[in-house]
Design a protein that fits this description.
By secondary structure, the chain is an alpha+beta fold. The chain is built from 7 helices and 16 strands. The strands form 3 sheets. Strands 1, 2, 3, 4, 5, 6, 8, 9, 11 and 14 form a 10-stranded mixed β-sheet that branches. It starts with a strand and ends in a 5-residue tail after the last strand. The relative contact order is 0.21.
Amino acid sequence: MFLTRHQTLQGPRWALDGRFLPTTFTLDQGLQLPKAALDGFLRSLSTGDAASGPLLPPLEPTHEVWAAGVTYLRSREAREAESAVKDVYAMVYDAPRPELFWKSLGWRVAGHQMPIRVRADSRWNVPEPELTLVVNAAREIVGFCVGNDVSSRDIEGENPLYLPQAKVYDGSCALGPGLQLGKTEHLKDLAVEITIARGGRQVFQGATRTSQIKRPLEELTRYLGQELEFPRGAFLMTGTGIVPPPEFSMTAGDVVAITIGGMTLENAVAGRA
């Protein structure tokens, strides 16, 4: 099942497998259900005309987006290289408790072909391609989408306490193009690919697999919900295993394309504010 959210003349509208759902449908409704009931609920809904209109981010304004860090060995190595406190990231990678941080509310998220940004006070900015889990109110993984956890590496590298400023700002989070719901066993070994184009020419390409994530996905969601309730469900970015070289930084006009599980999220980089 593939859920997409579209901009229409009547406002945002959800679609299932390419056809509009009733205007009364909300993702909140689906994520309040147990995983075993979600498929039947969605298929019981009537569908209408073929979906049209620009894609919106596949979540609602009040949904929360969280993120996990240092889940891949490559991410740990990159964090150590950029940081003035290198041993912090080695400790996180090997610790029982994962690194989890708040990333965005739904209203601030960019969707497919919507702009992302780099901070005006940062000189070293990178995209982070991430499998993003769709988690229901019972903290079950019910699906996934493609995520881009845009980051200011120089700000984070100055001091780990600057992580919120490096990770949370306008244009720093993109999700899309839609939500692939249903079976989730295959999420443990999906190809993750990224390309960055500049002036029509590819300037970076990278690939990894979600099997390189050190921690089970269920462990990440369990820790996320250990002392937090998510009555509307939540989205959890699971970390990156692809890091551009130190000499690379995104700039206005770049186009970032991330493909995971057959879905591609594409965003152009807007100019600095």
